[in-house]
Design brief:
Helices cover 35% and strands 22% of the residues. The C terminus is likely disordered.
Length: 415
């Protein structure tokens, strides 16, 4: 990675710890737009600070998952450090990196904070500092356990994130109380990244809408409201007739009391088409169906097509077992991270990579009814008119995302 220059804000994020004005600060918080240069400057600054302040120290670099952390932060960081005279020895199997500069060696452990159970992974270690990348995506228990580990004299805490809901605990407890926490707070926009071209800035502006536009492009902590997918258009996303497809997948949201919704998807020239669907509501029909009856509907939906996989609601254990017993389809459990899945669907709709046949009346109906719960504290869709929405989300998360990455739609961007 070649860096030609840093913006003034990036330089401050990189070397704030050298400034007399911030000598008494314990932390730095950087938030704002995507691709604004937060992670680049902070990760370099974190290692520079650690190497200047400690020798033989133990530090933590944390992300939502170790896989995404290694790809998005550690790999580019080590490349840059190596080019300016640092010696880096990474032990991939043990999730740490030893970094040496001017005779000083420190160890940096990598941790993933993806769920409440992750707090146990970092418990017990003594740290001289911690860097939390995308802290708003981590559970509070993990973050607070990581901060509690920073008990060495002179330790400091480094946070970055994209904005979320304004009721998010990190916003209310850290950003709103930055002065009280003795934390330097820096807000970034895309214009704070001099290596980001105007063409790429425009791409990101086209990619998002609604609350996600406010958060990821404008860098605002904004509440979600209104319909979940305001970018969905009958004119742009609904088609008629038939399409020749190169492969097929079925996604399933399974219900007994609630409706079951299955979608048959086909790939053609880089776009995925919802060709037909099965939607059964026991309340609407007046009678429930068994696993076997739903399986027969799955067979009818597939017809004679070769189905690559069937993606199923992970909570539908009995239906998953029923599919496996019949031995026709390969079944996989869906990723049920709701908010991440919604962001992924927003991205592919904005890019016109998802098309819906006009015969799929139930998913079209739900697009107009699927709304954010404006009474909740946080991002939660109303649990109504969401069954075709869920099967679509399962499909997109499985087939149109980087599942082993940072939980978001994968884009290739030069920095």
């Amino acid at each position: 990675m070649k860096i030609s220059s840093f913006s003034r804000k990036q330089l401050l994020a990189l070397n704030w710890w050298t400034k007399p004005a911030y000598a008494g600060y314990d932390a730095i918080i950087c938030d704002g737009a995507v691709r604004s240069g937060k992670t680049l400057s902070m990760s370099l600054g974190f290692v520079f600070w650690a190497s200047s302040s400690f020798s033989g120290g133990t530090f933590a670099i944390c992300g939502k998952t170790v896989t995404s952390l290694r790809r998005n932060v550690v790999t580019p960081l080590l490349s840059m450090l190596g080019s300016i005279g640092f010696s880096c020895c990474e032990k991939v199997s043990r999730n740490y990196v030893d970094i040496t500069f001017l005779g000083r060696t420190n160890r940096f452990y990598l941790f993933g904070g993806k769920d409440e159970g992750s707090a146990a992974l970092i418990q017990g270690i003594t740290l001289s500092g911690v860097f939390l990348d995308e802290v708003a995506l981590m559970p509070r228990s993990f973050v607070e356990q990581a901060l509690a580990r920073c008990s060495v004299s002179g330790s400091k805490m480094w946070f970055n994130c994209n904005p979320d809901n304004p009721s998010h605990w990190f916003y209310t407890e850290w950003i709103k109380k930055a002065d009280e926490k003795r934390a330097l707070y820096l807000h970034f926009t895309m214009d704070d990244n001099p290596s980001l071209s105007q063409k790429l800035k425009n791409r990101y502006r086209r990619l998002y809408s609604g609350a996600f536009y406010d958060r990821f492009v404008l860098g605002k902590w904004t509440a979600s409201e209104g319909v979940v997918y305001p970018m969905f258009s009958m004119k742009k996303h609904v088609y008629s007739g038939s399409v020749d497809c190169e492969k097929y997948v079925i996604s399933c949201d399974y219900g007994t009391v609630n409706p079951s919704s299955f979608g048959l998807w086909g790939l053609s020239e880089g776009k995925w088409y919802r060709i037909r669907e099965y939607y059964y509501s026991s309340k609407r029909e007046g009678i429930s169906r068994t696993d076997e009856e739903h399986y027969q509907a799955l067979e009818e939906l597939a017809g004679g097509l070769k189905i690559e996989k069937v993606i199923v609601d992970p909570s539908a254990a009995s239906f998953i077992e029923c599919i496996r017993r019949h031995k026709r389809f390969r079944v996989v459990k869906a990723d049920n991270d709701v908010i991440t899945g919604i962001r992924r669907v927003c991205a592919v709709l904005k890019q016109d990579k998802l098309m819906i046949n006009q015969s799929c009346r139930d998913i079209i109906r739900e697009f107009s009814l699927y709304r954010w719960n404006e009474k909740s504290a946080g991002d939660f869709p109303v649990k109504e008119n969401d069954h075709a929405m869920d099967d679509m989300r399962y499909f997109v998360s499985e087939m149109l995302s980087d599942k082993n990455g940072d939980g978001f739609f994968a884009l290739s961007v030069s920095r």
